[in-house]
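S.,

Sequence below, as promised.
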Amino acid sequence: MTRMHTEARSIEEPHAGASVDRARRGGLRRAKRRESLIAVLFLAPVLAFLGAFVAYPLANAGMLSFFSWDGFSPREWVGLGNFSRLLGDGVFWSSLRNNVLIALAAIVFQVGLGMVIAYWLVRVIPRFKRAAMFLYVIPVVISEICIGLLWQFVYNPYFGLLNGFLELVGLGGLNQGWLGDRNLAMPAVLVVMNLTYLGLYILLFVAAFQDVDESVYEAAALDGAGHFRTFFGVSVPMIFSNVQATVLLAVVTSFKTFSLVFVMTRGGPNNATDVISTYLFKTGFGNFEAGYASAIGIAQLLITVVVGVAVVGMTRSRGSSPARVKGTAR
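The prediction came back faster than expected:
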């Protein structure tokens, strides 16, 4: 009799354990579904915002790029006509060239020079770091429209500060109509852009350099490394992921720049300072060619994505492995 009870208990115990496991798995599934539902509820406002103000306008612009439309009359289907016109549009290609020039200048002066200044503030003159960072960041927090208007006054050929300064130091012969000269307008705009955004990259690199372990610099000092060798052999490899991110940021923002150029020059003189965004604006709202402007916008998006992916690929392929960084630090 006892043996029969023992056998019955041994048969029931696996079934009881299996039911407990099933109940536990069911509870875990319910908990995961509840967490997923809560996450979706929290993300819903953001997803709705992105859908209404990013996805829908982008899809509408993509559809509109296949039509000829002035914004008022009925739309006329042209298929790929707007894109074929884009290929032969000299102003579009000159605008793209200006965007590329802005991106290259941003990499050299905003990222490169910003990295050097940040290292100097952190490692050489740290006592002046706070005051210098405050001065550098001021242009970043001021509206681009205000900055453009101020620099219009600086470049004014009749009562501008730049020509007035040249007169004061006896170099009045160098006075120019800086924004009215086709050969000088784009360099003048590039100066403003790089001075405006330099502080942002200094701020980012100061934070990155401060995160580098002090023992790495102590080891470099014991090895007899000066600032030049320490900067290129230790600091830059240690923050290379930050360099990748800032280069990508500089390139992407360069391909969508608008406000400073539009306020200072409206893309002139004679389209010399046009970038893709200003050309798109003038085409859509000045010439009332909404379909062609949409094609320009789609092309700008595709070019920005391709360039961004290319920049990420190039910086990643040249990145340093942990072992390489460690060896450099020695």
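The two ends are 79 Å apart (CA to CA).

Coffee later?
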